Amino acid sequence: MFVSINWIKDYVDLSGLDIKKLINSFTLATAEVEEIYEKGADVQNVVVGEILSVEAHPNSQKLHLLKVDAGSKVCDIVCGAPNVRAGMKVALALAGGRVPAGEIKLATVAGFPSEGMCCSEKELGISDDHSGLMELETDAPNGTDLKAIFPIDDIVFEVDNKSLTNRPDLWGHYGIAREFAALTGRALKPLTLGDLSYDGDEQVAVSIGRPDLVYRYSCVKMDNITKHVSPLDMRIRLYYCGMRGINLLADVTNYIMLEIGQPTHAFNAAKIDCIGVDTPQAPMKFTTLDGVEREIDTDTLMIWNGDEPTAIAGIMGGLDSEIVEDTGAVVLESANFDGISVRKSSSRLGHRTDASARYEKMLDPTLTMEAVGRFVQLVKEIDPDARVASQVTDVVCKEYPPVSLSFDKAYVDRYTGIEISDERICKTLTALGFGVTYADGNFTVSVPSWRATKDVTIKADIIEEITRIYGYDNFKITTTRSPLKPVPNDYARLEDAEVQDLLVKKFALHEVHSYVWCDGRKFKKLGIPVEPNVTVLNIENSENGVLRNAMLPTLLSIAAENKDFADRYGLFEIGRVVEGTKPTGEANERKHLGIVLYDKSGDEKALYLRAVALVNALIGEIKQKPASYAKITPAHAWQHPKNTAEISVDGTAIGTLCALHPANAAKLDKIGRAVGVELDMDKFHAVNAAAIAFREPSTQQSTYSDLSLVLPEQTKFSDLAACWNSLGLAELESVRVIDTYEKLGVRSITVRLLFTAMDRTLEMEEVQGWIDRIIENLAKINVVLRA
Amino acid sequence: MFQSPAELKKLFEERAAAAGKAAEMEQLRIEFLGKKGYIAGLMQELRNVPNERKKEAGQRINEAKQFIERALAARVEELKKLEEQMLIDATESYDESMPTDDDLGSYHPITLVRREMENIFLSMGFAVEDYSEITDDYNCFEALNIPKHHPARDMQDTYYLSSGQLLKTHTSAAQNTILRKYKENLVNGQPIRAIFPGRCFRNEKIDACHENTFFQMEGIMVDRDISISNLIYFMKTMLSEVFQRDVTVRLRPGFFPFVEPGFELDIQCLICGGKGCPSCKDSGWLELCPCGMIHPNVLTAAGIDPEEYTGFAFGLGLTRLAMMRYGVKDIRVFNGGNLKALSQFTEKSFTRPDESKEA
């Protein structure tokens, strides 16, 4: 919204004040000012001139040679405007002066000297009218500076509409003037309202069919309007505030909207008999005054003339009842429609207007009659012959309850943390229009109607009024007196951080973030079906609507998109997935860790075993426990039927490790392969970490024995380990694989068993006894020593 | 052949000078000082020396022996040095500018900024809370005093789910849960101090400046007598920590249904110091975070009596902070999964301020 300081000055005396500083304090106390424009700064030395003579240019159809009386002298002017005539008073920009387009210089135009320029309104930057020279209606003597008779100089500032959403009172200059009054401590002048008296019987009948959607409907008829163009000063204000002059009646209604925030609509009285306010019985079409035919549904409040629709309530009038140049009689509608209804209608129509934007904010219903009063006042000021031609109709359907709030000084002190005097509190609230009674440290405040529609409802709102005018920059700031308590450790957060650290620093993986929904298009590239799950109802691309039930598909997509990054890489994400719904119907949100390792060389086995090493490190480092693995039937079609394993700690499954099904692997890459790990972090966090079990290192000599074993097919290392672990030998310190060998289908492995006792050096015979028992156990599972 | 001690000394000097390796000196030692060496030979011959000259001859032999011992040690030392020098000269000077085959992982930039924030707030006594991505109408709106017909609830802003829930549009959605979790502490005289970073979702078209999935961090503090004065003090202190320098802040009225009064907090532009530059659009100020006194209705919804307790809340855009911190111009980097971009964030979880820049 644009605010004109000239307009503000109609209501607050700002003389002697630094306007820029004032605007800055408005930013800090009320709403952010985004831009300040100095209007008229680029209009200099433009004077009233009178065209004395007009001669045709010898070589041009368009140009004329003028003699223009500029007061002190008569100037030769070459002019191309179509409407020049002798005796016309014009705005003459003299050589050495300025207009927004640039400096005016002595020039030779088409062979003739020109000592200045006669200007159109557009050339002066006061409207977009460029149809011809601006014709001055003034008695001022020739040579008078134009700025002395027209308000061309102004400071206009722009406020972001978003920062005014909660302040319906600031959608007009008068409300902003009230803020300036409070900020400067100066008086706010009252609005001048016209005389509504009327002796006759005529009254516009109004029937409200949907009183639930209307707060108030006021209207009046005026006739005998003979003027059709609004005065220049009014048009300049409208233009500076972002609107165009149209005709007198449209301009006055716009002016009132910009002045007090109340939208009004002037109907051509010839086309209005009685007014109805109702929603249609059936969907219909309606052409608004911008010439667009719109679909109207049965929830949209309309204004009717009998059975004929004439306007969409609070949004836009119809083409048929539009005011045209020669309209001499009007019915002025000044209504207060339900803000939510207007917002929904305008959103359904996809059409927001200056009026609907204001109604959405919940305007003060008392404004409807003020707007009627202003309308009559302004029309009569401009056109003294105009008359009020009906009694005022004023239907009140709903009212906002009056708001009165009580609080004590101690409350203000506690909430602000500073000392603001009683006098200052009373003065601030009074200046903002609040009624204040104060006795014995207790305040009772009545909220003015323009703040009582939704804005100020509780005493904390009053605190804001007091403090914003006091100025947050003036606050003495202090720390809280709350005691400082140690923050309890949040192990889930610490474990997440440890997982990230291990994966980044030990395994050189890259952390990524991906979306919580499946990207159907990317999944398709990998041949991964989107599995049914909870969906987002209103996502733009329906292929992305299904929430992910696992991390790996989205991470595999990312892995596939980074093949030009390196020959091998790994990536991970700790994020959320949804595993269907809970019995309550709510989404079952889980925190998962997903890891994908990719290698261009295609050595899937090496990748898979690296993933095992990685999982072992995570669980080993963070939980001080071993992980165990068991092959399972894949839960998802894209997992490898043979190489998909469940990861467990302490017998609880916490995740899955898998290679890709060959079909999906082939889509990922011709040669390169990927494997994935997915851990349920909620389950991971639930695993208790073991304490570090410290063992005094033995000072005795260790003895080791190497066994080279031949393994039958399907025998796993864990089967071998069971053969020595089951003996429970305290002296068996460690077992290491020192060699593996595979040839012609024969798999063999060499392990080194290290024995140490705490209290003695072990004798060979003793160790051999244990080795024999181990070999015995191994024989039971058909594992024999290599020949 | 008899040689006088003096001749022996001279002979040794000649031979030692001729030796080129430390190992040859061992030969000389045996030849001169060994059991069958020259000195031993002279000592043998001492028997034949008349008694009155024995003492003097003995002294001369001894002197020669000591001389040779010293010269030998010195020469050995000298030759070792020479040999070492030859080794040094022969050694290649290694090129540390050769690219190393380092395999570095990387953190997501949000992780780095988030950790930094969490550490600051932990040091100020705030608990770090986790909250779900999926929530419901009550937590996201109703408990936050956002009325039924508020535009924020419209379909165009919020992702609604088939489960009747929604994806949280702001971290404020956690306020009710966290206030409830800790409200018992208030009775025991312990303030509620918590931050809750999290991922938020808004139904927006994605471009360089807009994402439908982004990170915020919310903070709250509730106790008896928490005031606006405390809020301003806290925000200033906290932001000075975040930016590692003294920041100037200003508050403007801002409207958010869940705070009253609500503020937009601006910091004086860190680039131009308030003079005005392109990054602050010549205003000298950057709008950084919304904050305010927690609305009494929000406290009431969490079962906390607003007559007895007050508090403040603030929000920080973690994604925006990460963009500022690392100079990321296109927001799509964060969720784009391009490792060429993301692999650059290798640094530690804290950044030491550049002290040279502080005046």
Helix/strand order of chain B = HHHHHEEHEHEEHEEEHEHHH
Strand content of chain A: 25-35%
* Low-pLDDT regions of chain A: none
- Largest sheet entry of chain A: 7 strands, mixed
Characterise this structure.
The complex is a heterodimer of chains A (about 775) and B (about 350). Chain A is α+β, with helices and mostly antiparallel strands. Chain A folds into 6 domains: about 70 residues, Phenylalanyl-tRNA Synthetase, Chain B, domain 1 (2-Layer Sandwich), CATH 3.30.56.10; about 110 residues, OB fold (Dihydrolipoamide Acetyltransferase, E2P) (Beta Barrel); about 190 residues, Phenylalanyl-trna Synthetase, Chain B, domain 3 (Phenylalanyl-tRNA Synthetase, Chain B, domain 3); about 70 residues, 2-Layer Sandwich (Phenylalanyl-tRNA Synthetase, Chain B, domain 1), CATH 3.30.56; about 200 residues, BirA Bifunctional Protein, domain 2 (2-Layer Sandwich); about 80 residues, Alpha-Beta Plaits. Chain A has 20 helices and 37 strands. Chain A is elongated. The model of chain A has no long low-confidence stretch (mean pLDDT about 95). Chain B is an alpha+beta fold and about 350 residues long. Chain B folds into 2 domains: about 90 residues; about 240 residues, Bira Bifunctional Protein, Domain 2 (BirA Bifunctional Protein, domain 2, 2-Layer Sandwich). Chain B is about 40% helix and about 15% strand. Chain B has 12 helices and 9 strands. In chain B, helix 1 packs parallel to helix 4, helix 2 packs antiparallel against helix 4 and helix 5 crosses helix 10. Chain B is rod-shaped, with a radius of gyration of 41 Å. The interface between A and B is large, with 85 and 81 residues.
